[in-house]
């Protein structure tokens, strides 16, 4: 890190400096300052976004968080193109509330789609200002200047040249930006961004800059942060859902060396020790008297869950989406098909249990966290602790997969609360059983679906009912819904209504009715079955049902599943302004061609002996990203074991910034849903979650890995070379259709339709036996 | 508490700790190493993997007093400033997503290749079966192991800054 950069950071206010020379590699205590305030970086200033160093390098400040999909690298590509600086001469700082503008952290796969244009605009403005400076220096008009690789030359006189570093290195731009409605997302200078055709780094695949430090052990992760005087905390969770704390016998842990404190408030209990292993020991050893609720607070068991959901009275019903006259269409149908589907609760089950470190030095609070929404964590903690917001900051750091509202939010609040209580820096780390039992869950669903075919096998009416167990869904970093707040007895007057959803497809079906409902479980507070956003919230569940059912209709129509879908795209010629219909056709056709799809109806049992082989397709869109997945499976007739041998994904997310990074994200998304398809289920009895580790809550492993994965990046835009080709989100779309693709492939292989996830060996084997396969 | 001697990545240490303490916490908190990480504390996931006597070992369930041989961590496999071929293959293949599990993937793969320099698909899958990844980078991990095997055998391709698919 250069001296000038340090000066800049210090002037931004901070007593801990972090070097970003190779990821976050060191924490350096700078000379203490008199309680600096953590002001929001001023997004109206170009200096808040870009700093040019004297060595002719640039640092970009991005208020997003990179969860491992390479968004930081993509921002560098986009910004280096607009600034006209080589990619290798740039670096990127992300998501720390005191030094990067509040762009919301991450969520909804919107980093590149929504914030990409913002970052391109500020970088373009930087280039404009530098050209202006060179124009003054050489006393020639800007149109007489050429710029390449962060060097500006006078056209026709190459001896006159100046680097960006020479022009402004170590100094400030002092350029004010504008933003309509004072919205950060509208920030712009006066420079225009380049047409897509002029972008050079965009569309290339430079390696992700964060990877070397992740493979050589040099990266400081959020789990690694240590400061002098830091102590270790572990939570003691209620053993039963809805249990009440009666008393704590602190003498039960008095023999633990270095015990700092037993902290409790309401039903929240934690132990704090000088050493980590002793905190673990103390949490296990602490005698707590809990009062068990008079009656079990959860539905009787995970197996009875769906019966419970079906018989519940919905807490909300979204206004039905109705097209045409479905009732009339059903009564006149040649054939009516009906099916019900079930998806259990599935967790984030982060690979590292939740953690955070909070430092209360100088009457302030610094939280080191991998919470993908660091800005919300800061606001939430300030409110929770009753601290002014400018005394709280969040340093975002790398952590385990953060695909939505994880327990990282909860740990951040817990660390801050304990640090304030004890007056020392506190590191909180959840244990495995705690994470798997108590993290936020993706909601369980039941679906009831009907379809009407006419005599020619066309789908004329579609009736879709989705019910989710998602009442009191917890949002991100809310000071009145994080787990510690709930356990301390905070209750929000109006619990969140929760979400349910209906399919996203471009099928021209003349008559449709789609209803999304939410039901509540008996216990909505302090429950291990709390729900929150899990990667592509509700998408995998809804698309499992809808795309399995489209497959069932194709079977009833004795049609090939690809042709059945293409026919429905082609039944209407109208399109939306993102050309989703045209792009859906391109994506489904590309997937089929890449796979080598043989046109025929399902099922056809292929394979001899114990192994049955089949293939299945599923398609959907997410926002404007279109995706089709084809899975080829082998089903073992004797064991029920399913191996997804091959996956093909055709994916259209518009302009691609980094094709190789995108391919890997798409692969990860598919395999995540494959894990949900084959393994994952939150199990519980009436009192508690019983799936608490990697044995009781299995996940995908190396043994499940497909032998071959093809990800084809499609540009199905009718005008693929337009200069303003937009980029759409890509972090979650491939999660959406994969479960259905696997289910459809299993049907193709065996003729057995699995309508309940996950497809574990025993469930598959039982279904095969029932069907006599 | 008692004195425990430990050799890690070529350096000897004597520490005054409870001898039943899992090795993981000693490596992380006393020796300030960041490669091995806590994932489950149950020996089920592999996040904490180190190599002892050539064996990929789960440090979260290994009492420090039971360690009699040198411990190698992720930080200790690069030699003379040059990444181990497995690490280089991980960069060339761009394996990690979040990367949190990759210590376990890399150390388990290294132990495999040390014993079986040219593993077939089944050997790779079986050796790696208990090393979990929740970003599900398994496909790339397996490709990277094959790439590393080639590099160790001296038939690898050159590394660059661009990703070569």
Averaging pLDDT over every residue of chain A, what do you get?
Answer: 94
The count of β-strands of chain B is 5
Biggest sheet of chain A: strands, sense, closure? Answer: 7 strands, mixed
Q: How large, in whole angstroms, is the Cα Rg of chain B?
A: 16 Å
CATH H level, superfamily name of the largest domain in chain A:
Aldehyde oxidase/xanthine dehydrogenase, molybdopterin binding domain
Let me know the average pLDDT of chain B. Answer: 96
Largest Cβ-defined interface: A-B, 65 and 62 residues
Overall structural domain count of chain B: 2
Measured by DSSP, the beta-strand proportion of chain B falls in 5-15%
Q: Which geometry of chain A do the CA atoms define? A: globular
Low-confidence stretches of chain B: none
- In DSSP terms (H or I, runs of 4 or more residues), the helix count of chain A works out at 18
Termini separation of chain A comes to: 66 Å
CATH architecture verdict of the largest domain in chain B: Roll
Please give the CATH architecture of the largest domain in chain A.
2-Layer Sandwich
Whole-Å distance between the termini of chain B? 52 Å
What is the fold named in CATH at topology level of the largest domain in chain B?
Answer: Ubiquitin-like (UB roll)
**Total number of domains of chain A:** 4
What general form of chain B does the structure show? globular
CATH superfamily of the largest domain in chain B: Beta-grasp domain
């Amino acid at each position: 890190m250069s001296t000038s950069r340090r000066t800049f950071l210090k002037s931004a206010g901070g007593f801990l400096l972090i070097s970003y020379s190779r990821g976050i590699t060191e924490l350096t205590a700078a000379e203490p300052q008199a309680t600096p305030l953590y002001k929001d970086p001023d997004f109206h200033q170009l200096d808040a976004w870009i700093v040019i160093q004297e060595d002719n390098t640039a640092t970009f400040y991005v208020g997003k968080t990179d969860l491992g999909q390479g968004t930081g690298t993509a921002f560098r590509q986009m910004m280096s193109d607009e600034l006209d600086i080589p990619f290798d001469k740039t670096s990127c700082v992300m998501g720390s509330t005191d030094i990067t503008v509040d762009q919301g952290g991450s969520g909804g796969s919107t980093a590149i789609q929504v914030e990409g244009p913002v970052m391109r605009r500020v970088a373009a403005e930087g280039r404009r200002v530098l050209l202006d400076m060179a124009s003054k220096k050489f006393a020639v008009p800007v149109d007489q200047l050429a710029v390449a690789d962060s060097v500006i030359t006078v056209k026709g006189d190459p001896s006159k040249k100046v680097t960006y570093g020479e022009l402004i290195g170590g100094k400030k731009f002092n350029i004010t930006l504008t933003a309509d409605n004072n919205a950060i997302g509208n920030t712009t200078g006066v420079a225009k961004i380049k047409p897509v055709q002029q972008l050079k780094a965009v569309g290339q695949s430079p390696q992700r800059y964060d990877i070397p430090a992740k493979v050589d052990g040099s990266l400081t992760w959020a789990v690694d942060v240590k400061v002098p005087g830091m102590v270790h905390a572990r939570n003691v969770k209620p053993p039963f859902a809805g249990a009440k704390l009666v008393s704590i016998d602190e003498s039960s842990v008095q023999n633990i060396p270095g015990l700092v404190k037993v902290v409790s408030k309401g039903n929240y209990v934690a132990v704090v020790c000088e050493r980590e292993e002793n905190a673990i020991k103390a949490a296990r050893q602490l005698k707590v008297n809990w009062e068990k609720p008079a009656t079990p607070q959860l539905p009787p068991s995970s197996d009875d869950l769906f019966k419970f959901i079906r018989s519940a009275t919905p807490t909300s019903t979204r206004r039905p989406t109705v097209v045409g006259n479905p009732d009339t269409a059903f009564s006149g149908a040649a054939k009516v098909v009906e099916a019900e589907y079930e998806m259990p609760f599935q967790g984030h089950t982060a690979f590292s249990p939740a953690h955070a470190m909070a430092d209360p030095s100088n009457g302030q609070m610094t939280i080191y966290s991998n919470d993908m929404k660091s800005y919300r964590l800061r606001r939430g903690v300030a409110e929770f602790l009753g601290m002014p917001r400018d005394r709280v900051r969040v340093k975002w750091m790398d952590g385990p997969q953060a695909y939505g509202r994880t327990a990282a939010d909860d740990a951040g609040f817990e660390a801050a609360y304990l640090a304030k209580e004890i007056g020392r820096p506190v590191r909180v780390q959840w244990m495995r059983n705690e994470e798997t039992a108590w993290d936020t869950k993706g909601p369980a669903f039941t679906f009831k679906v009907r379809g009407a075919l006419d005599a020619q096998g066309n789908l004329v009416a579609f009736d879709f009912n989705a019910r989710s167990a998602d009442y009191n869904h917890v949002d991100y970093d809310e000071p009145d819904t994080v787990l510690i707040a709930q356990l301390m007895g905070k209750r929000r007057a109006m619990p969140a209504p929760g979400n349910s959803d209906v399919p996203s497809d471009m099928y021209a079906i003349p008559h449709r009715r789609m209803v999304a409902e939410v039901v509540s479980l008996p216990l909505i507070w302090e429950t291990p079955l709390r729900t929150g956003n899990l990667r592509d919230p509700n998408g995998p569940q809804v698309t499992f049902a809808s795309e399995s059912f489209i497959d069932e209709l194709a079977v009833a129509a004795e049609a090939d599943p690809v042709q059945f879908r293409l026919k429905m795209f082609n039944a209407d010629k109208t399109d939306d302004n993102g050309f989703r219909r045209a792009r859906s056709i391109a994506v489904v056709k590309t997937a089929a061609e890449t796979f080598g799809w043989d046109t025929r109806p399902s099922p056809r049992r292929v394979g001899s002996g114990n192994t049955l082989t089949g293939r299945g397709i599923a398609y959907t869109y997410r926002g404007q990203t279109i995706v089709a997945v084809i899975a080829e499976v082998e089903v073992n007739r004797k064991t029920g074991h399913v191996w997804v041998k091959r996956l093909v994904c055709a994916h259209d997310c518009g302009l691609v910034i980094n094709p190789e990074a995108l391919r890997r994200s798409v692969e990860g998304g598919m395999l995540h849903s494959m894990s949900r398809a084959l393994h994952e289920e939150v199990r519980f009895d009436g009192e508690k979650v019983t799936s608490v580790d990697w044995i009781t809550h299995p996940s995908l492993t190396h043994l499940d890995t497909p032998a071959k994965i093809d990800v084809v990046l499609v540009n199905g835009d009718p005008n693929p070379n337009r200069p303003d080709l937009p980029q759409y989100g890509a972090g979650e779309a491939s999660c959406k259709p994969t479960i259905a693709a696997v289910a459809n492939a299993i049907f193709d292989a065996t003729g057995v339709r699995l309508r309940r996830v996950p497809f574990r060996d025993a469930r598959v084997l039982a279904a095969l036996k029932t069907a006599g396969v | 508490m008692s004195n425990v001697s430990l050799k890690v990545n070529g350096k000897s240490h004597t520490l005054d700790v409870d001898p039943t303490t899992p090795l993981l916490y000693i490596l992380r908190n006393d020796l300030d190493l960041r490669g091995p990480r806590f994932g489950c504390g149950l020996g089920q996931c592999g996040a904490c993997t180190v190599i002892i006597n050539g064996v990929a070992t789960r440090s979260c369930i290994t009492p420090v007093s039971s360690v009699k041989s040198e411990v190698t961590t992720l930080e200790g496999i690069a030699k003379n400033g040059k990444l181990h071929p497995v690490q280089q293959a991980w960069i060339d293949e761009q394996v990690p997503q979040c990367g949190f599990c990759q210590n376990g993937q890399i150390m388990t793969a290294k132990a495999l290749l040390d014993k079986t320099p040219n593993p077939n698909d089944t050997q790779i899958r079986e050796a790696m079966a208990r090393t979990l990844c929740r970003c599900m980078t398994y496909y790339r991990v397996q490709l990277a192991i094959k790439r590393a095997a080639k590099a160790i055998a001296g038939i690898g391709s050159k590394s660059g800054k661009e990703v070569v698919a």
